[in-house]
Amino acid sequence: MSDFQIKVREKDKGKSCLVVPSGRLDSLSALDMEDELTKLMRRKSIDLKIDMKDLSFISEEGMGLLLGIQSSLRSEGRSVVFMNVPGKIDAKIKMIGAGSYFVCA
Amino acid sequence: MSKETEDRGYKNADALNELREELRESDYMLKSVLELSEKLISTLDIKRLARLFAMSIAGNLGVNRVSVFVASAVGGSLRSIYSLGTGSDFDLKSINVNNLFIKWLREETPPVHIDTIYTGKSSGLLVKGKWFEKIVKSGFAYLFPLQFDGNLKGLIFFSGKVNGKGFDKNDGELLKILMRIGAAAVKNALDFELLSKSSVKRNSFSEVKSELTSRRSFELNTPLTVLKSTLCSVESDAVSESLMLDMARDAVKHLESGINELANIAEIEFDGTGLQFRMTDISTIVEECLRNILPEIEEKRISVTFDEKVFREVRADRSKIKIAVEEIIGSAVKFMAGGGDLKIALSIYQTGPNEMEGIELRYYDSGDAGAMPSGKDIGSKNKTDGISGFLEKQLRDITAGEWIVLRVKNSGGGTEEEKVDETVKLSPKRSNSSERRVERMGAGLFISQKIIAEHDGKLYCRGTEDGGTEFSVWLPA
Predict the structure, then answer these.
(1) Could you report the per-residue pLDDT of B55-106, keeping only the tens digit for each?
(2) What secondary structure letter does DSSP report for B293?
(3) Is the pTM of this model over 0.95?
(4) Pairing of strands B142-148, B278-280
(5) Distance, CA of B76 to CA of B397 (rounded, Å)
(6) A 37-76 → B contacts, CB under 8 A
(7) Pairing, β B469-476 against β B341-349
(8) Closest Cα of chain B to A89: distance in Å?
(9) Nearest residue of B to residue A101, measured between CA atoms
(10) Of the partner residues A27, A41, A64, the one whose CB lies closest to the CB of residue B58
(11) Could you tell me if B50 and B71 are in contact, meaning their C-beta atoms sit under 8 angstroms apart?
(12) Which of A15, A78, B378, B380 allows an S-S link to A73, with CB 3.0 to 4.6 Å?
């Protein structure tokens, strides 16, 4: 059973959202996370901050989702910042050549 | 250690590192492929599959935009299932591909750089159209066809890698394997989708058939009651024997006709099998139908005219088309108040029906059930085998050629006007409930439409200026 959870907190008087996923971001939880992020992205003016400190694993689908989210928000003139990226996940990001694509804090 | 030995040592170490790197990449590739196979094989939901597939491509290759289009029931059309990384502005619902495009696609080695389509570098093909502009403007750079057994199941569009580098040999190999797995999974999901929809339609059809059968069975009770009463009367000698015998003969005739109709209804199959085609004269069928409903026509004092302008026979299953014609004339009579006019006309048309005919009554909606036309089938109108063929047949554009048209027009009127409006306004496509459809459209008209469709024909209904209704049956001549 997946231990994936996602918490969402509004920040800056509703102008941005802090998303805190935890556990394993595998193919199944990537679909859940996309559903959750899609709901947030429907609110036109909102920017996203994704705190990845509690993420223990990310699959290729999870990585694909993050690339897609970054691309979608950019195309709409909005931003997404990835925070506290764990070392293993950072290595995976670099392995697919997306190191400079993500905005990390 | 000599310098030469030292150099050789470095070279060996480099080669070893390269080999290690290659093995690591191969291992990674194999792992990705196995994982993706496991995930895709375990789902038959086309949307879920497309999402997983797109995310997997993006995550494996480091691309940020992927869009999945799959074969639609409408020949030459591919419907959008899912797009990743495009934002809300990307609203391309479907794309039309022609035979030239499919032919060209087969000659190219995927992944195909979209520039080659746009400029026609390789084969002189220049793709025009809004769909292509949208694809290019949305940042897609490559396309990969999903082919299974030589048939096109879909197209995957994707952007370049986010690091700006091109796809290397490993990426190319990985893409090929991913797409092969994807094509098989998409094929299975489309088959499943098609069968599910077909199953729903089959169940709805069974409900309609059952409704009509029970209605007709109920109608058989009347002549049966007459026969029973006659027997009682003859036995008790209460009334004139000859009068009762006439009534009995009439009742037997009705019973016989009703039982034959029931048998005919029972023979109608969902997939159109069981029809026995031969050259048939529609005008004699109309006359027979009018004779059958003569008691109701007389009771309502309806004036009937039959204008017959055509003597050509059509290829039809006589008993089935008779059920359809009788149901249509019966419906027209049913909606009439006393003293109205029923006008029936049979004529020949050189062109197909247009919007003036009103609403096309369709039991089977076109939807996008995913008949999965193959590259060679796209544009072809002759494929009629299996369920895909059946659906394609429903969707086929058959407006060309000569048509025999039967028009049944009533003058409506009186208290039945509401019912006429209900019939005229009905749109089976708007409702998802087969029960509601039966209630509003009448089981008989559903069966009629089904029979007419099996003859490659069409059934229309429209309100007339004088408040009546006109049904028109279009059968290919």
Answers:
(1) 999 999 999 999 999 987 555 678 999 999 998 888 888 887 776 777 777 7
(2) T
(3) no
(4) unpaired
(5) 13
(6) 41-42, 59-65, 67-73, 75-76
(7) unpaired
(8) 12
(9) B162
(10) A64
(11) no
(12) A78
Structure confidence by residue, pLDDT tens digits, B132-151: 788 888 899 999 999 888 88
* Backbone φ and ψ of B462, nearest 5°: -150, 155
Q: Chain A residue with minimal CA distance to B61?
A: A96
Q: CB within 8 A of B438, min separation 6: which ones?
A: B207, B208, B211, B446
CB contact at 8 A, B471 and B335: no
Q: Does residue B327 sit in helix, strand or coil?
A: helix
| Sign of the dihedral defined by the CA atoms of residues A59, A60, A61, A64, in that order | positive
Contact B323, B267 (CB under 8 A): no
Residues of A in contact with B58 (CB under 8 A): 63-65, 67-68
Distances (CA, A) of A90 to A6, A53, A59, A68, B52: 20, 11, 12, 17, 22
Separation in Å, CA B207 to CA B263, B283, B309, B422: 17, 31, 38, 21
- Chain B contact present for A27, CB below 8 A: yes
- Spell out which residues of chain A touch residue B60, defining contact as CB-CB under 8 Å: 60, 64, 96
pLDDT (tens digit per residue) in A6-62:
999 988 777 889 999 999 998 889 999 999 999 888 876 788 999 999 999 999 999
On whether the CB atoms of residues B145 and B176 are closer than 8 A, the answer is no
Q: How many CB pairs under 8 A join A and B?
A: 103
- Strand blocks (E) in B317-455: 341-349, 359-360, 403-410
CA distance A59 to chain B (A): 8
What residues in A contact B165, CB-CB < 8 Å?
97
Residue contact B56–A65, C-beta within 8 A: no
Q: Is the pLDDT of residue B324 over 70?
A: yes
**Which comes out higher in pLDDT, residue B255 or B367?**
B255
Interface with A, mutate which of B46, B55, B159 (most A CBs under 10 A): B55
Give all strands (DSSP E) within B402-457, no chain letters: 403-410
Sign of the CA dihedral running B164, B169, B173, B176 = positive
**B28-34: long-range contacts, CB 8 A cutoff, minimum separation 24:** B29/B170, B29/B173, B29/B174, B29/B177, B32/A60, B32/B56, B32/B60, B32/B174, B32/B178, B33/B174, B33/B177, B33/B178, B33/B181
